Amino acid sequence: MARAKPSHAEVEILQSLWDRGQATVREVYTDIQAHRSVGYTTTLKQMQRMLEKDLIEKVGAEGRSHTYRAKVKPQRTRSALLDRLITTAFDGSSNALILHALGRERPSKSEIAEIRALLDALEQDETTE
Questions:
Q1: What are the angstrom distances between the C-alpha of 5 and each of 34, 79, 91?
Q2: Can you tell me whether residue 7 is helix, strand or coil?
Q3: What is the dihedral angle through the alpha carbons of 50, 52, 56, 59, rounded to the nearest 10 degrees?
Q4: 41 near 30, Cβ under 8 Å?
Q5: Whole-angstrom Cα distance, residue 53 to residue 48?
Q6: Rounded (10°) CA dihedral 51, 54, 59, 63
Q7: Nearest Cα to Cα of residue 43 among 19, 67, 10, 17
Q8: Which of 42, 46, 102, 125 is the most buried (most CB within 10 A)?
Q9: Measuring CA to CA, how many Å separate 4 from each of 37, 38, 53, 77, 108?
Q10: What is the pTM of this model?
């Protein structure tokens, strides 16, 4: 069975779990509270739904507090979200996404070097085919 694609709020929870490895609802709630206001019970309910959707799993318990970890990999989730963004917001054009992203703010010198290295590698792959 294919896993459901996570919502924006679920990605926030997954990010907390990816960063921590595993966490309680309270720890995830605290991480999210650091950048936006959310209720503890809202976080709890979202995590219960994520259990049902097979995005996370329980890995332990101490008293009434359960520990959870992500069942989905960050790279795979990010790729699926990026595909959805490209399809819906950029009419299927990766090029339009890249140009938009680069036009929003000036990349640092190290970011430009990384982009250049990636482009060079892509060109090299193209010439060896």
A1: 24, 11, 20
A2: coil
A3: 130
A4: no
A5: 9
A6: 10
A7: 10
A8: 46
A9: 25, 23, 6, 10, 36
A10: 0.74
Q: Which among 54, 55, 47, 59 is positioned nearest to 21, based on CA atoms?
A: 59
CB atoms within 10 A of CB 102: 13
Q: Is 111 helix (H, G, I), strand (E, B) or coil?
A: helix
Both tokens of 101, joined, read 């992203």
Maximum distance among all alpha carbons in the chain? 61
Cβ-Cβ contacts under 8 Å for 80 (sequence gap 6 or more): 5
Helices (H), 1-129: 8-20, 25-33, 40-52, 74-89, 94-104, 109-128
Beta bridge partners of residue 60, listed in sequence order: 67
DSSP character for 4? Answer: P
Residue pLDDT, tens place only, 38-95: 999 999 999 999 999 999 999 988 888 899 999 999 998 888 889 989 999 999 999 9
